[in-house]
Amino acid sequence: MTSKFEYSRSEHDTPLEYDQYISQMREKEFPMLNGKTYLDHAGTTLYSKSLIDNFSADLIANLYGNPHSNSTPSVVSGRRVDNVRARTLRFFNADPDHFDLVFVANATAAIKVVTDAFRDHQNRTSEKFWYGYHRDAHTSLVGVREISKNLHRCFKSDSEVESWIENSCPTGDGRVGLFAYPGQSNMTGRRLPLSWCQRIHSDSKRKRVYTLLDAAALATTAQLDFSDPAASPDFTALSFYKIFGFPDLGALIVRKSSGSILRQRRYFGGGTVDMVIALDDTWHAKRESLHEALEDGTLPFHSIIALDIAMATHQQLFGSMGRISSHTAFLIRTLHAAAVEMRHPNGAPLLAVYNDTAAVYGNAATQGATLAFNVLRTNGSVIGYGEVERAADTQGVFVRSGGLCNPGGVATHLAFSAKEMRAAYAAGHRCSQPHEIMMGRPTGVVRASLGAMSTLQDVTRLIEFLREEFTGITSSAECASEGSVTEVEQKVIGLTVKVEEAVKSQVLSKAKRWTRKMGRLVGPRNTTVVV
């Protein structure tokens, strides 16, 4: 596994020195970024050329069979999977004596493994379980409430969680409980206290309360550290493509001392049992190892082999996760500082930035490498987030927009009540087909998220794009006040186009004053040409 680039300098390099290294390395290792600005690392980060080259070379050089067979190629696959599992635990400082790792498709699949186990425990024992989740939870965590038979609570703030913990985590009649929260909001990037898990574990009264951490967003640019089992979550869900870009694979990391409840899951697939009787009886015996009892069917062994190479290549190119964390903290601090200072010519802010009062940009303990915002017109009204994303896309700047599968974040930061959200749905608003502005407010945000291979140039490009495209944009009402809109065919700057014109006589005489904004040519008095 070789690459022209290898990060071997001091972890104490200055932010600018490390950024310069990333910029140089990126030209060779991430050629797909040439001329593009990718700012959706919270969705998936990007794979390096060396990762793909090394993975391809490995597959060509070796013969891998299905690990469930006993042939030599199959045994080789099985051993490789075991080695990668152990290496992955080491990557997270997780002692295999205290932790197990279950390979799954992604973080959502990991959450579903836990959900299925609690559902089946509930059905086996006739004991309802209690479920609590934080308002910043991704939809995949919110969905767990549907199997808790109405014994659930959404914590609306950190202080509510703190109060609940201080009161010994009541779940009602001492029943089994599951408390779930994200290590980082996938919407705003704010990071939640990892200390909650240890505090819940520390009191003997809370022995029946389990913790589930959604680390998908957090793990992208932060080191997950399981070196202290007592301080670690019982269950941790994550996606490797958010860390390495490839493979498309996830994991559930389980504290072995808490693994017994996962064995309550009733379904079993191929490879998870030592014996099954199909005729005249319904008896079966599950595998002894926790991961073997939960990994249904043939594992995606090629993807697991790719994960092995991904970890090695990632370390070679970027250094430690701590170095990545420092780099992205520097970048997001720079981006946030520039974003909040952007102004229209009349002095009005260009952006509305959404964050938590406790978050400090540049402090990796409280804020990840994500900026959530909306673009404002000169009068303070909001430009649709989808319109901003489409304009960015035409300029080679790739962000994400919408509700981001974070309903609690939408309700909190965009001030939508439950009644208003129901009304929005009744009016036709859907996550997949949104009405971007409803009741005078945006129904989502624009999200720019940074990753290991992001650079200051990416930050600069986003700021330049926002300034060039949206500075001075006025509201629809302001445009209408200047004259009625008609459509005529005109030739402007050598293009035959359909023109929306406020004052027809100005179109040609003022053509030299046209500029490009939001994927259109914008002329005097907001005459626009779609291009």
UniProtKB/TrEMBL annotation:
Q: Which GO terms describe its biological process?
A: molybdopterin cofactor metabolic process
Signal peptide from the UniProt entry: none
Instruction: Cite the Aminotransferase class V domain residue spans from the record.
Output: 37-335
Keyword check for Lyase: no
Which InterPro entries does this chain map to?
A: Aminotrans_V_dom (IPR000192), PyrdxlP-dep_Trfase (IPR015424), PyrdxlP-dep_Trfase_major (IPR015421)
One MF annotation (Gene Ontology) recorded for this entry: molybdenum cofactor sulfurtransferase activity
Transferase is among the record's keywords: yes
Q: What is the protein name for this chain?
A: Pyridoxal phosphate-dependent transferase
